[in-house]
Amino acid sequence: MHSNIGQSTLSLGLTVKSLQDTTTCQWSEYTESDTIPRRAVRRRANAFDAKFSYTDGESTKTAIKQKGKFMSARRIVLLLILVLAGVAVRARSQEQPADQKLPAGFRGEFLAQLKEVQGKVEALADAFPDDAYAWRPMEGVRSTREVLMHIAGANYLFPSFVGVAKPEGVPKDMEKTVTERAKVMEEITKSFDFIRNAVLRLSDGDLDKPAKYFGRESTVRDLYLNAGLHMHEHLGQLIAYARMNHIVPPWTAAEEAAQKGKTKKE
Questions:
Q1: Which of 93, 120, 131, 175 could cysteine-pair with 146, CB 3.0–4.6 Å?
Q2: CA of 208: how far to CAs of 44, 75, 144, 153, in Å?
Q3: How confident is the model over 141-177, as pLDDT tens digits?
Q4: Total domains in the fold of the chain
């Protein structure tokens, strides 16, 4: 195939996209795409006396053949998997960035706690059914949805005390204005990303700079320490809400399932 062909479709469901140095193969029975050197595809095709057929947007050419007979789609896939198997792992490892190393000291400790809290808050937000989003234990207390948005709002508020501007488009009065489940989930994730990036931009020296929040004269370190405490406080509130609605926190359910499986094996 020539590099100027935008997309070529094999007649048995295999898609081949030509680039300058690589060929990307996709097929309906699999969910992943793998990039391999084009010469590897040609070498495998030649080994089975096969011809690639493709659609160039105007015409469709001959299907893959072996000794004059059409090969089954499953057999084509299996043959290509043999070629792709080793290369696919290397390709994916090159495309995925390595996990960012946490900074030393307080910032790294805060970010580790942040990751744990975010994972649990998002898991609970997903575990609550739609009708439980409006549930509250009594009048005058935040509903499940309002607690979630309270956490998100605070994630924007704490950094703003030390000059970190909120991004454009953050809803005002989130506890009252963000009502759709999908939007709630979106705002939770965005708020955790915001405070994470705010801490990553700090230097160790910044932590000892003065900070004033809620009428307190303190330091940047103390401000983010209290931001973390605030997240944990309301995570505990959400866990209580879940239990009162007969919802087992997802991480606890996973641990219990693993323990049952271990017991059965013993």
A1: 175
A2: 62, 65, 36, 25
A3: 999 999 999 999 999 999 999 999 999 999 999 999 9
A4: 2
